[in-house]
Amino acid sequence: MIHHAHILVVDDQLEQQIILRAMLRRAGCYCVDICSTGQEALQLLEAQPDVNLVLLDCVMPEMTGIDVCHRIRKIEGHEDTPVIMVTAAQDVYLLDVAFAAGATDYIRKPCERLEIMARVNSALQLRDEMQQRHDSNQLLQKLLRRILPVSVAGELESTGKFEPRSFKNLSVFFVDFVDFTKQSSACNSSELLGILNNLFDAFDTISKHYQLERLKTVGDEYQGISLLHQQKFHRPLFAVAAVKDMLWLQKMWYQHRKKEGKPAWLGRAAVNVGPMHAGIVGIQRFQFDVWGPAINHVKCMCNLADQGEIIVSEDVFHQLSGVFDAQPHVNINLKGEGEISLLTIKTKDSERLKEEICRLIGSEHENWHSQVLPELLHDALHSKTTNAWENTIMDQR
Question: What residues contact 338, with CB distance under 8 A and at least 6 apart?
Fold first, then answer.
């Protein structure tokens, strides 16, 4: 372990520097830096985040080893670097202060080679174990944020649980593919998975742009909701604008695939809004989900849409700021709601829609349709993502 370590020795006595360097080299550690002052050591550590361990003299002029140790803990990348104090002092209180400043261990002078090697190896092993645990926690956090909504994952990380909650006016949308079963039967499993990954990845990017997030996918169905922690984005305007872009992207993707004689399908969508409950269900296997009439009905609404259409409820249409026109689609009886009117959305004023979205989201929407969406289409057509989940995990490592 010590053979691959980068160790910094900090001591104002030349004789002690020579002794420690010789002991470390005899043990096989040839990457040893020497500093004579605390200030010199701090400058080296700021410039070299790859230092694995510090042997630090406790008593030095100008800046004591305890002061140096305290400041090491404030250097980015060295918050957990092992610091072994080297001291001739017998004062237990001094050691208590050193440990309070962040010291990992201590060695008494005169230094014995076997003791130094044992403590250095122990500290390096502890550091490696802590780093492995930190890396595992980082991987877990990144995977949670890919599986769960951002706010839900954040609450789980900080508190270990997610408290169920209710929302008065949450938007939900649903996109599925028309004639998917027939068309997808011409694809092998790897090809089909790659296509779905590409399309859903593009949908994820569109959702994120409009302050929405994926709730889940089931087969060829993509379900999304407003960002839970951003109430100002719960308006259905964002959901309607998002599914409009998703259907545009899929239409372009469909036309390109058909020209090449490849299996392809168009999409359809529905948007609803209303009160909902949100929480994590399950013990052995858990899943975040939302419940309420709005989400129960949105799938039925989508099934009534023709390819390329967006179906909304009257409640959604009344909250669209007048930037969309709509025409009556059908009246249906829904369980627990009675008869409701559904409408088909049509863009009324694209420029006004753009202005409204820019006002609410920001300047990043300026080049969205001219630059970002075409790039998403290109990626959906040409990306190779058959093993997307496996690659995601390896990337995080």
Answer: none
Vertex 313 angle, CA 355 and 324, to 5°: 25
Interatomic CA distance for residues 278 and 256, integer angstroms: 39
- Examine the domain organization and report whether 79 and 211 are in the same domain: no
Q: What is the CATH number of the domain that holds 255?
A: 3.30.70.1230
CATH no. for residue 6? 3.40.50.2300
CA 244/CA 380 separation, integer angstroms: 17
pLDDT tens, 337-358?
677 788 898 866 667 787 888 8
Give the separation between CA 348 and CA 116, rounded to whole angstroms.
Answer: 77
Q: Are 37 and 81 in contact (CB under 8 A)?
A: no
pTM attached to this predicted model: 0.71
Q: Judge whether 332 and 300 are in contact, CB under 8 Å.
A: yes
What ranges in the chain are assigned the alpha helix state H?
14-26, 38-47, 65-72, 92-100, 113-147, 150-159, 180-184, 189-209, 236-259, 293-303, 314-318, 350-361, 373-382, 388-396
CA distance to 39, 58, 71, 103, per residue, from 94 (Å): 21, 9, 17, 11
